[in-house]
Specification:
The protein is α/β, with parallel strands linked by helices. The protein has three domains: 242 residues, Rossmann fold (3-Layer(aba) Sandwich), CATH 3.40.50.300; 213 residues, no CATH class; 119 residues, 3-Layer(aba) Sandwich (D-Maltodextrin-Binding Protein, domain 2). 50% of the residues lie in helices and 11% in strands. The protein is built from 25 helices and 13 strands. The strands form three sheets. Strands 5-6-7-3-8-9 form a six-stranded mixed β-sheet, with helices on both faces. The chain has a four-stranded mixed β-sheet with strand order 11-10-12-13. It has a three-stranded antiparallel β-sheet with strand order 2-1-4, covered by helices on one side. Helix 18 packs antiparallel against helix 22. The two termini are 68 Å apart.
Length: 689
């Protein structure tokens, strides 16, 4: 099959109507065709130095996705010379996108050989993925919070373009693609405008290889004609090699080569004119119908060029410095953060709201707890002027903490507890005062059981409200101790004297115990969820896969996101510490030089867990559910609400390995015990993070 047919296809102005061609069009041939013909002639005369640059070369490529019974690609062979436009056609699910992903280096677990510019995509010296390829995916795959100019500038910076070069190219692409004002955000554009911005991002650096997946969908006919003219110009003037897929079959008559795929096989790879001549039809759509009507096995590929290519075309190694890509991603991250009000609200106000609610609702002693009192001695007060012992005891109970309600009988007082009106009932004996006096008059010779029983106060209580009951018990013990000390003139003072606390305060509340845990839990949860939201959203939008084709490595995404998140984390920690100081009166100012490093490191630990979840899931909902599901067991195991020493031995061992446990213990020791870096718990908290 002569190479001359290739020259005819590139010179025809209307495929399928060769009789109407102008003589100048027949004589005129592209430089690429002349080069192929020269190579063919050299090959015929035995010249081993024949060299036609081959940009894409696939040999016996097969690929099967995990959990799929059948292969998506089956022994695909494809040769694409430099400067050609290759139209890839086929029904949905035939393997077109999978084939493109193999060429772009996004899929590597295939059998066979894939070479782009003579190198395996993704290899050390290859610029694919990277500046060697421009990619427009079928999805929009753009950052919706960025403007048109910011989007094109971002991709220009990823490709290492200079600022003036980027500005000049943006100006050209805006005019050429008839895009609206560059300040408009991508999310405010129509679908057609978004696709044009996507095409502009692929063309921004004029790459030697251009891969376009449905580039003209949603584009008006006039603009579609302009795009094709520009692609032809790029192929002929800039020697750009272009692979595109499209639903408009007749549109590919302007391509230099056309490939038809079906069920993972490349059935035909030919020039449009040769295909129509071979099948004796007038349109490529008829060719497609002819191929679709036959079994896959009966469609044998027709090879176009019978030349042995000496080597592939290689690019000049233009590596983009890592810091350039990281800076571009960082700038993009801050722009998205600034424009996403929901995430900004979530980051800044959520910690403040949580700490305010926590400080108001948790940790204080309960006030005005109802206590029922049955005191039959009350009636004696009207007949006697001296103060009764029962009244003396009740006077030691703080009125602001306990609200005492008198009842006329023992049964009524106990019934109020049963009905939930009171937390407890104090029951006095009718002769309490008389027996209490006798009880303390002769402490050295006390053996009368009746005096003992009649001078005892009975207390009936409700333990279903344990926090309130603990507060009541504390007040009753304090009142009893004060009464005994007064009546015994300190002869019955406790044998155990509790001195001033070495660490903490005597009146330390439960809120002060759990505040370090709450702060660390808030930091952990916010860091995980924000990391997951950012990365999984990018994966869902397709923008993450697109920047990978642009040559961005995973570690560069992680570093850039960590820097952006670190700034956000610093704001969160500042608001948390300030709010906790104001609302919970939690004094930690003198130890900020230790608290800040622990909390920042803890936030980085949470980010790493967010990266891990993001690498597993493609769906935002599943990723968030996993984050929440992992957080609550960790919250319980980490000693936030209760010390891990109170857990069973197996759980105690497991709890020590939870990511929040040691940092919380370190935070608590720094604030409550006022220790520093010489303390083992502090060292462990920083070290584990």
């Amino acid at each position: 099959k002569s190479i001359s047919h290739l020259g005819e296809s590139k010179s025809h102005s209307k495929i399928g109507q060769p009789d109407q061609m102008k003589e100048s069009e027949i004589v005129s041939k592209s430089k690429i065709t002349e080069k192929l013909e020269k190579a063919e002639n050299e090959s015929r005369h035995g010249n081993d130095t024949a060299n036609v640059p081959i940009v894409v070369h696939l040999k016996n490529v097969s690929f099967r996705y995990k959990h799929h019974m059948h292969s998506t690609l089956k022994n695909v062979n494809l040769v694409l010379p430099e400067g050609f436009i290759y139209g890839l056609l086929g029904a949905s699910g035939c393997g077109k996108t999978t084939l493109l992903r193999c060429i772009l280096g996004q899929l590597t677990s295939y059998s066979g050989s894939v070479l782009v510019f003579g190198l395996k995509p993704g290899s050390k010296q290859s610029l694919v993925p990277g500046p060697g390829v421009g990619y427009m995916p079928q999805e929009i795959s753009l950052y919706s919070e960025l403007s048109i100019r910011e989007t094109l500038k971002f991709y220009g910076r990823l490709f290492g373009m200079k600022r003036m070069e980027i500005t000049s190219k943006i100006r050209f692409l805006i005019n050429f693609l008839n895009l609206p004002a560059t300040g408009r955000l991508v999310k405010d554009l129509s679908d057609g405008q978004k696709r044009r911005v996507s095409l502009a991002a692929a063309l921004i650096n004029t790459p030697p290889l251009l891969v376009l997946d449905e580039p003209t969908v949603g584009v008006d006919p006039l603009l579609r004609e302009n795009i094709w003219n520009h692609l032809k110009e790029l192929a002929e003037s800039h020697r750009m090699t272009i692979i595109l897929t499209t639903h408009y079959i007749e549109e590919t008559t302007r391509a230099d080569l056309v490939g038809f795929m079906r069920e993972g096989k490349l059935l035909v790879e030919e020039t449009p004119h040769k295909l129509m001549s071979f099948y004796k039809v007038q349109t490529l759509e008829d060719v497609f119908l002819e191929l679709s009507a036959k079994p896959v096995e009966s469609n044998k590929p027709i090879k176009l060029v019978n030349i042995e290519y000496s080597r592939g075309g290689r690019l000049k190694n233009k590596k983009i410095p890592t810091f350039v890509k990281i800076n571009a991603i960082i700038e993009k991250g801050f722009i998205r953060l600034k424009r996403n009000l929901v995430i900004l609200f979530f980051q800044t106000l959520t910690p403040i709201i949580i700490m305010i609610v926590f400080g108001i609702c948790i940790g204080d002693q309960q006030d005005s707890l109802n206590i029922a009192v049955y005191n039959p001695e009350q009636e004696i007060l009207t007949n006697e002027t001296r103060k009764l012992e029962s009244q003396t005891f009740l006077s030691f109970l703080p009125a602001e903490k306990l609200t005492l309600t008198n009842y006329s009988s023992k049964e009524e007082a106990i019934a109020s507890v049963d009905d939930g009106k009171s937390l407890g009932a104090l029951i006095f004996n009718p002769t309490f005062s008389q027996n209490a006096i006798l009880r303390f008059q002769n402490l050295s010779n006390y053996s009368d059981d009746d005096i003992y029983l009649n001078s005892t106060i009975d207390y009936y209580y409700d333990m279903s409200s344990i926090i309130g009951q603990l507060s009541v018990n504390k007040q009753l013990r304090a009142a009893t101790e004060k009464y005994i000390q007064k009546k015994s003139k300190h002869r019955l003072d406790p044998m155990l004297k509790v001195e001033q606390a070495i660490y903490g305060a005597v009146d330390m509340t439960f809120r002060e115990f759990i505040t370090p845990g709450i702060i660390m839990a808030i930091i952990y949860m916010l860091s995980v969820t924000l990391t997951v939201l950012t990365l999984v959203t990018e994966k869902q939008e397709g923008s993450y896969h697109r920047i990978k084709v642009a040559g961005v490595k995973v570690y560069q995404v992680i570093v850039a996101h960590t820097i952006v998140q670190f700034v956000s984390l610093s704001i969160q920690i500042t608001t948390l510490l300030v709010t906790s100081l104001i609302v919970t009166r939690f004094s930690h100012v003198s130890k900020l030089h230790l608290i800040i490093p622990i909390t920042l490191l803890h936030g980085l630990v949470a980010m790493s867990f967010g990266f891990f979840i993001s690498s597993i899931y493609e769906n935002e909902r599943e990723a968030i559910l996993t984050s929440v599901a992992a957080f609550y067991p960790m919250l319980i195991l980490s000693g936030v609400f209760w010390p891990i020493e109170a857990m069973s031995t197996p759980l105690n061992i497991i709890a020590k390995f939870a990511p929040m446990t040691m940092p919380i213990k370190a935070f608590r020791s720094i604030v409550v015990r006022n220790v520093g870096l010489t303390n083992l718990e502090v060292i462990a908290g920083i070290g584990t993070s």
